[in-house]
Amino acid sequence: MVDPLRVCARCGTLPHGDACPACAAPARLVDAPPDDDGGYWVRVEAALRCDRCKLLTPVDGVDVGERYRCAHCDYEQDVLVDSFAEGLREAHGVGDLAWPPPDGRHPDPDCPLPDDLPQRVAIGGPAAALLWADGGVRMTVRVGCPLCARCAAPLRAHTAAGKTLVRCDACGARDVYTLPERHAETLAGALLEAWRARDADEPAPRPVTVVREGARVLTLRCPQCGGALDAPDSARVVCPYCATVCAVEAPLQRHFAEREVATAPLWLRFKGPSPARLALQKTLAPALARARKRARKDALRAQPPVARAPQRAKRSPPPSAPAEGGNATPLWVIPLVVAAVAAALMALGR
Ligand SMILES: [Zn+2]
Ligand SMILES: [Zn+2]
Ligand SMILES: [Zn+2]
Ligand SMILES: [Zn+2]
After folding, report:
1. Is 65 left (phi over 0), alpha (psi -120 to 50) or beta?
2. Is residue 310 part of a domain?
3. Residue at 274 is within a domain
4. Residue 205 CA to ligand 4 centre (angstroms)
5. Which residues are in the CB-under-5-Å shell of ion ligand 4?
6. Residue 98 lies in a domain
7. How far apart are CA 309 and CA 48, in angstroms?
8. Would you say 95 and 40 are in contact if contact means Cβ atoms under 8 Å apart?
């Protein structure tokens, strides 16, 4: 059984000590109870690094095309799609291996993991994040639990047959996210607006009101009540004043992001042991088994003969033909005899 995760009350990620390295919020933590289906969440900020200006363009989902346009300098370049997929597998590894200590989500008592596991060191460190980079793909991976968009309580989730039901026990909000078949091998689910099932009677999100000064975007406001929406970083924002669901286009989400900060955090859900764990076990298990066998042998040898004798009797079946003269001399007696003889000889020689 996994203990509740104590996460930042503002962004849902695992803190370091009492502070939140992800959102720099002051120390306020909430308990996110484990989900009964064994699923777990990882927050990924994925970005693509521009070959020309070296700045990062956030990735809005998990479907990256083969080409993308830099948000800063408009330069068009290739995406290493395989690198991106590898990053998602890495994220699975972080969620599985890093929390809870010592051995994460799927501990194997026969195969304890090394203390200096990079995933564990990174999540337990001051940044509480694993930074992963390959080719032009950059990912910042954190462990945590997504929070309700309306009331900020930790969300509960259950994934079955590619559908993840996400609910908020505090305010009753519910959503279902359907995982496209092509991601079934990598993910259990993800909180992506594009994957969210919409109720037939649910009003479509209304585009935010953009307040401009000339060409410059000053602020975004709720289309219903005019309330200011501060720096939205996702496609769907719930107005904190009137609960209207507002749609935010990707360029507007990015507009408020600091230049080098990869925003648009993706909440990805995983179930089961990660590829990273399976690979580790494959490497570690044979060596551990050998070491254990050796240790067992050593322990047996070190045991005093009285303790050892009954164990032996239990283990080996009785010999079919009784040894000559009743009991055969046990092997352990020989070194004792040798030692005794040597001691007697030394005593004589003195
Ligand atoms: Zn936070
Ligand atoms: Zn660029
Ligand atoms: Zn809620
Ligand atoms: Zn409003």
Report:
1. beta
2. no
3. yes
4. 12
5. 222, 224-225, 227, 239, 241-242, 244
6. yes
7. 67
8. yes
- Domain assignment of residue 18, given as a range: 5-200+258-280
CA of 183 from ligand 3 middle (Å) equals 28
Distance 84 CA to ligand 1 centre (A): 25
Cα of 332 vs centre of ligand 1, distance in Å, is 64
Nearest ligand by distance to the CA of 206: 4
Output the pLDDT for position 287: 85
Q: How far apart are CA 159 and CA 33, in angstroms?
A: 16
Question: Which of the ligands is closest to the CA of residue 152?
Answer: 3
User: Which listed ligand is nearest to 73 at the C-alpha?
Assistant: 2
Q: For the whole model, what pTM was predicted?
A: 0.73
Whether residue 95 is contained in a domain is answered as yes
Give the torsion through C-alpha atoms of 268, 179, 136, 234, to 10 deg.
-60
Q: What is the pLDDT of residue 349?
A: 55
Q: Looking at residues 69-93, what average pLDDT do you find?
A: 89
Domain count, the chain: 1
Separation CA 54–CA 231 (nearest Å)? 24
